[in-house]
Specification:
- By secondary structure, the protein is an all-alpha fold.
Length: 57
């Protein structure tokens, strides 16, 4: 069984593209500087939409 839903992987992919383009911002409005931040933002957005994503540790 998959750990992450297709919707979650799409959100992470979208966030990674935005990070590469330099348009992804954090909650405080600062520019995202690392891939880890982009992945975390993508997963958080997927969680908000109700996608199947494991809970934060």
């Amino acid at each position: 069984m998959a750990k992450y839903s297709k919707k979650a992987s799409e959100k992470v992919e979208e966030a990674m593209h935005e990070e590469k383009a330099g348009t992804l911002k954090t909650g405080t409005g600062k520019k995202v500087t690392s891939k880890k931040q982009a992945v975390a933002i993508g997963l958080a957005e997927a969680r908000k939409e109700g996608a199947k994503v494991p809970k934060k540790k």
